[in-house]
Amino acid sequence: MSKLKVSYISYPLTLKHTFHLAHGKRNSTPCVLLKIEYANLISYGEASLPPYLKENPGSVIAYFESIDWNVFNESAPLDFLDYLNKQEKINYPGMAAIDMAIFDLAGKLSNTPCHEILNVESKITPLLSYTITYEEDESILLEKINDAKEFKQLKLKLGTKHDKHFIDFILKNTDKPFFADANQGWKSLHEAVYMCEFLRERKCLFIEQPFSKKAYQLSYKLKQRNILPVFADESITNFSDLNKYYFCFDGVNIKLMKCGGIKNAIKMISFARKSNLKIMMGCMTETSCGIAAASQIAPLCDFADLDGSHLISNNPFKEVILNDGRIILQKKSGVGIERTRIPTP
Ligand code: MG
Q1: Which domains are assigned to the chain?
Q2: What is the largest CA-CA distance in the chain?
């Protein structure tokens, strides 16, 4: 029986435009790419590591090195994910990278698309949203609006002192539906109520992560005001957070990098459904490897914020296929991605 051959490399992602957020700005996102070879098949995974996750490339690589890859069994490939979840050492982005590569491999071994293995019936993903962050220079903002032309919905990242001007400038130049992400930027209920009313007047769909991640009480109070639906991002990273704090929100942004991959995301989706939460499948700035993996379960969600690979300039994989603002799930076995260029780990 052959063995898994595993290799990985740190591969920082370069952002097309500087990200201006409530807690600073950045031009790149650390990332570790994982390659698994087995029986002449190659599968990929990635761990994208924006600063708010506590992991970094070193900790992800140390996590990969702690894994007993010999546990993998071709006759039950997905059992490897149970092994991961039982380990004492938890590293969610590292787990996500392994989870997506193992799902890809399981699909390739059985010649089945990943969404079919998962019994995802609909092949239609929700409309994708495209993220626009603030720029002082209005010509760059216009460029960003133009970059979004294939997308039918926008996500506006707030958190600078120019929020109102930014929102109105975008809405003057496009009539696409939008939602807003405050990225933990609002400090008080008063400020949040004022901004939510401002946004509601402009037909904003919902507000994501208004307060700092531990400010559950404030989120609960804002939700009770019923101005706009309140979604959690940083406040709910994994199943345990969801289980404890779901009642503070109207919706949740589930990301593979936060929760440890497809298997754990499905568990969160079913809990969120039972709790009457709206569900967004989200992403970090990441390559189309992570996006293709997340898109396998996106039809189970209400919103798909899966534009991460469109925000970087060094995607080493072929881009996912968009049609009319949605990702088209492929009939290819596994997750359905192909590399274009990738440094040899
Ligand atoms: Mg967010």
Answers
A1: 5-112 (3.30.390.10), 129-327 (3.20.20.120)
A2: 63
